[in-house]
Structure formats: C-alpha cells, structure tokens
Amino acid sequence: MSKPYTLNELLIITIAKEIRDDENVVLGVGLPMIAGALAKALFAPRATLIMEAGIIGFQPTMPMENVADCTAFRGFSCSTDLFSTFTMTYRGFVDVCFLGVAQVDKYGNLNTTVIGDYDKPDVRLPGSGGAADFISYAKRTVLTMRGGQFVEKLPYLTSPGYLEGGDSREKSGHFTPGSGPSKLISTQGVFEFDPETKEMFLSSVHPGITVDAVKKKVPWDLKVSPDLHETRRPKDEEIEFIRRNFPTESISKALVLELGLANMARKLSA
Amino acid sequence: MKTGKNKLMSARQAVAKYVRDGDTLIIGNYTISIAFGLVNEVARQKKRGLTLCSQSGHLCDEILTAAGCVERLVTAYVMSAGSREGEYPVSRGLKKGELQVEDYTNFQYNARLVAGMHGLSFMQVLEGVLHTDIFRRRSFMRENKFKVITCPFTGKDTVLVPALNPDVCIIHVQRADKFGNAQYWGAMGSVQAAALASRRIIVSCEEIVEHDVIAASPHFTIIPYFRVDAVVEMPWGAHPSQVVGYYNSDKTGLAVLSMGLMNEDGGKAVLDEWVYGCPDHNAYMKHYVSIMGMDGLNVLRARPYYSTPANYGAAFTSVWDEEGKERTMGVSLDELEQIMKEKEVLYE
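^ inputs. structure came back:
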C-alpha cells in the first residue's frame, strides 16, 4: 500500500501521465505546470516544456505564478514571443497542451468567457487567453477540471472541442487533423471521447469515487466505458516529488491562504 | 556617443504630456513587469474616456476601471474575473453596462499589434476561431472585429483581424538610456509589438544606464530610442508584480490591492490610500515600507544570475592597420593622396 495522497496530488500525477517522452508540451499555470515538472523529472526527461509567453525548454524548481514567470527556475533554452509560440502550434510543433475548464459540454467545447448575456453578464469569466487557439492546433488537448461545470448547452463557446460531435470538427477543415480534446481529468475521474460520435464518456474513476457520484454532476446521460477502471494510485516517489518541490500545490488554495495569512500575522506582530 | 535627445522626465510630466482623455491606451507588459507606477499615475491624473488595451488583464485594469478612466476594454483575459471571493471593477462595470469589452484570444490580440507595428492594415489569425463565440459575438468593434476572405494563394477560408495602433503605450522595462533605448528580457510576450504599434511610447525602467551599456548588448533593446517619447526612471516601478533580474512579485502587495478591489468600498479605499494618497511612485514605495518594513522588500530582491556576455567583438574596427596602411590597398593615407595626384583623379 502506497503513501496517502491528497486530491491535488492525484490530479497532478494523472495529468503528468499524459506527457510522453520527446514531446513538446504547452503548460498552463497551476496543476499542469507541476505535472510537467513531475513528468520531466520522473518519466519524460526529454519532454520540452513551453509557456505561451515565450519560455521554451525549462524545468520548474518551484511553482510558477503566471505564464511569463521566469523566477521559478534557473534559465531556459529559448526566449521568444507569444506570437511565435502560437504560430509554432499552428505549424504542428506542439504535441500536447493542457487547458483548465470552467464549463464544458459533452463534445468538449469550452466556455471560459461569460455566464449569462455577453454584453451584460451574470458572471464574467477571464476569457480565452490562449485556450481557443491551442485547442485548435495542438495535436492533443488535455482538459483539467477542478471547480468547473458540465453543462448541456454553453452560454458562450470560447474554445472549440468537437463542435456538434461526429466528424463536424474534422469536416470543417479549420483544425489540425486528429486534434481536439483527448481526455478530461476531473476531481472524480478521467473522461475520454468516443472515436466516432466524439461524445465524452467516463473511462476511469478515482479511488473511492462511484460512477453514480460522477453522473450526478453531469446533466446528460453520461456513457461509461465497458472497460471502466480505477485511476492508478500515485506512487510514493511521485507524491514525494510534489511535496518536496511544490508543497503549496499538494493542498487546496484555501488552506494555503489560511496558512499564509497566519504567517503574515506572525511576521507583522514580530 | 550622443543618440537623439534626452527624454528623461517624471512620471507626472510624461503622463500629463502624452496621455490624453479619450486615448486608446495600451499597457505594454504581459503578465509580469506590469507598469504599475505609470498606471497609478494615469489614475492619479484622472484621465477619462480611455479605450484600454490590456492582454493579461492584471490588477492594473481593475485600478484604472475603479478610477473611472476606462470606457472600453480590449482584452484576451480578465485575470480577476470569475473570482469566488468577490467581484472586481471590470466585472461590476460590465454588469452595470458602464463598460464595454471586446474579447480576442491571446494570439489575435497580439496579431493586431504585429500588424500595427509593421504598418500593415491587417493580420491573418487562426481559422479555428470561426467556430467560436469569440468570432460570432461582437461588441464595439462590430463587423470590424474579424473579416473572412478566401486566401488568394490556397483558396482556404482565412480570418483577418485589423491592425491595432494605440495612441499611447505605457511600459515598464529593466533598463534604458536617457535617449529612450529600452532593454527588456525574460518571456517576451507581446511586449515589443504593443510598444512599437503605438503612436506615443512612455517607458519606465528600473534603472537608467549609460548608452555604452546599451551599445554593448543591443539584442536586449526592444524599442529603439527614436520611437520613445518619455523615459522615467522608476525603481520598483512594477511593484507588486515581478521584474526579471530585479525582484520577485510581492504576494502581500498583490493581496492588499486584490482584497481591496474586490468590492466597491474597498476599491475606493485602495485608490485613496495607494493612488491618490501618494503624490508619486516614490511616495507609494515609502508608504509601503512604512507598513511592511524594508525587510518586506529586501526578501524580494533578485540574486544575480547573469546572462553570459555575447561577444560583439571583431578583428578590427578601422580600415588602417597597425602600420597605418589601408587593409585592402596596402597604402597609407599620404601614399593614397600621392597616388590620386599621379593618376590625375583630383579636381581643383
């Protein structure tokens, strides 16, 4: 029996398994960045990590704060601009990218812009950032979901998944052939997309999670793989790597904030 | 070496002279090295009716919106939007209909600036966007947000965005000379395009250096001096964001701004204390130190990790060799003039 792990650690390790050796990988800030560091350290040493602000070939030694943060490692291979990281993706040099999900539909289309009316929103969300272009041209896109929501119909489509399903994405001729979301990794399980219909289905559940619990969060009749299995438990060395290098990422932001505020209060009263 | 005129001035002078009501103003920095000192000066001078272009949607957007400077926003990301803890000025402005926003992707936003910096009227963007509401939903850009043509070479659907040429760019960099040569390094983002696309450019920098420093490392210069209107020396000018080689981001400082701005009253208090309450950036930093102590800043200072110097050397930089002979012809200047006479190529 391996060491007990946190939910964040399980997610980071599951995400990291999507990175293969020798691949060019575009990371976002947060769990994917830690997953990139873990993959490079433990099983994909020749993977090239890329941040869209123009950082190519780096190995984070602590958590990065944003996509342009160069303070979390010592040096990197190539400093370029944002325009070039996207044209590199367009030309087919990016194997896999990772995107966070606010809202997702059954075909892996994403909304990160707005809930309600665009001009007078109920909730304004951050917007596309790099997402819409990366999911269009990276060979694979892995969706990561912590606080997000599965919805029947998106109020705003920010980033194109498999559009209306079937061959609608491929047929448009506007995307890299074979590209699109390959997996969605949530706090409950891992989802894949049917090769024909492109509808999302449940392929694994995290330890201790039931299929019913997953279905409760999905507003459509979620299909489940006949080969449904339990998500692989993290190995000790993987957990240790995260805790040793990125301890704030092992736990929730709320807990980090609680400890951070207490630390600040201690410093101010000293 | 003298290179153009001395453009050193205070932030107050620079913003008063080069930022006008109704301007399209772009914050040139992307995610880090945010020109907070200049942003606060724009808010302090109560500029009105701005169309703000800001790619990373950092807290600077929230400050300018809270200060009533912004009517329209062009962006790819509104960093604080969708927060569970509170609602920020941009979100509140949109909800009330007091602020209009035009959304692009990071690439499209950058592409508009690349077209602008090169004097082209449009730039091609990536056609996947045709299937999104980024393409379908238009705000104040209306039909000019995107256009679609058939590529005359490939016959494919080709999506275009119009050039963006802001009236003025405010930007913070590591170092500059007094003539305006601005050096920046790290992740390049869309920093250079934002500056060069703009009609007027205000540069703030961590330090002013001699022109010789620039001349020995010109690959770090992203804005040549003749494009720059004002240079402001402003140590800690991007606080509380980070500047590569100078300081890390200040999480405490960011939290102070962030926790204040997430509601209306708090936002007013933040502006009163940190913007209107400080006559300039130096006063802002002094105020910060009076609360956090120097230790609060000292722990953020970067320890050096120097770039290896690039060798710009050459075998020689004069046509005359050690013996005073011209290297190609093998004659001295006196000898050359004698030859000119003999060959009768001189005119009286």
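Chain B has a mean pLDDT of 96. DSSP finds twelve helices and twelve strands in chain B.
thumbs up if we can close this ticket
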